[in-house]
Specification:
alpha+beta; 1 helix; 7-stranded antiparallel beta sheet; about 130 residues
Length: about 130
């Protein structure tokens, strides 16, 4: 008898800065860009009362989820599957928390290429030492 894996649909949800936890997996939902209102320079603009024009955009490329390493609101220190580290400013990005199962599977799939190369190099070094 073959047991089927759980085929439950999971939904990523937007997460507030104070709900972030170390070890959670998150992905970028959208990014906010700001610049001075054009009317400050003599043009006619429709910005808010603070004189700042804001635009929120969904990224063109879907980036894989990242794992949270540390949180100091509004900053979040994250690492991706390849080991690249970066800091998100929660005032500029909206993050969605993805399920741990999804995050682990993405990390496992995307991290394989590097781990294979490293393991091959280690096995070559061991075989060279044995041959001497």
């Amino acid at each position: 008898m073959i047991l089927e894996k759980e085929n439950k649909v999971r939904v990523a949800r937007q997460v507030r800065p104070d709900d972030l936890c170390v070890g959670s997996f998150v992905a970028v939902l959208c990014e906010t860009y700001e610049w001075p209102e054009f009317s400050c320079f003599g043009g006619s603009g429709t910005a808010g009362s603070d004189g700042v024009q804001r635009v929120t955009l969904v990224p063109n490329e879907t980036k894989p989820p990242v794992r949270i390493e540390a949180v100091c609101v509004p900053f979040v220190f994250v690492v991706d599957a390849g080991g690249k580290r970066q800091i998100f400013d929660m005032r500029r990005v909206r993050l969605a928390q993805v399920s741990n199962r999804f995050g682990r599977s993405v990390f496992a799939a995307m991290g394989r290429k590097k781990s294979r190369k490293k393991s091959r190099k280690k096995s070559r070094k061991k075989s060279r030492k044995r041959g001497k």
